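Quiz preparation item.
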């Protein structure tokens, strides 16, 4: 099968997976994602998956005319793959051992935490024919930076509060704001490394 045609099918699959898993979560909370409905949008996991779904739609629309997507569509796909890859990496390396993998992969979390990220990253590495640059690599840090500004700003403006009504739902500020800022800095470093790894493997696998 033609690589570009296969990539279209993969993007359609990603859109379906993202919408299906979010609708399931929207209706009923599951696993470690303890809030459903609109409240689910406070999680980076959910936002990064929706970012991947939106990027896939943009890629599909952009590639309709001549079969080749625009540079912007390719960049968004790269950034979104890194964002969902960050979610997967945190679950595999930290949250899974802490809370148990069955809990982390319960219900729609199986798609949001594992399947969608793996497919999105594999698409970039093996199916994309775009040339990703160092600038693109730096831009992958934009999603955690924007989320971090929202997260920290919300806690500063509205207060941290107490469980279960806390605004610090990831407990990043349990040791104070300096540690919370440091955690976000580390997260930015991790997603940059994910972008670098995708770039290097993309060159090898393309």
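Solution:
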């Amino acid at each position: 099968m033609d690589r570009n045609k296969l990539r279209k099918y993969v993007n359609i699959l990603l859109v379906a997976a993202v919408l299906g898993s979010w609708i399931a979560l929207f209706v009923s909370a599951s696993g470690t994602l303890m809030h459903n409905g609109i409240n689910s949008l406070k999680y980076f996991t959910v936002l990064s998956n929706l970012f991947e779904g939106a990027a896939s739609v943009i890629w599909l629309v952009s590639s309709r005319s001549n079969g080749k997507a625009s540079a912007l569509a390719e960049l968004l796909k790269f950034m979104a793959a890194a964002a969902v890859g960050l979610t997967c990496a945190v679950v595999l390396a930290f949250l899974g051992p802490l809370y148990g993998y069955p809990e982390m992969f319960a219900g729609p979390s199986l798609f949001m935490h594992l399947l969608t990220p793996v497919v999105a990253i594999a698409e970039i590495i093996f199916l994309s024919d775009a040339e990703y640059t160092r600038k693109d690599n730096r831009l992958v840090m934009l999603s955690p930076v924007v989320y971090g500004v929202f997260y920290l700003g919300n806690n500063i403006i509205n207060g941290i509060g107490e469980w279960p009504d806390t605004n610090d739902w990831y407990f990043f500020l349990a040791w104070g704001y300096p540690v919370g800022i440091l955690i976000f800095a580390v997260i930015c470093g991790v997603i940059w490394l994910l972008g670098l790894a995708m770039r290097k493997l993309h060159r090898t696998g393309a």
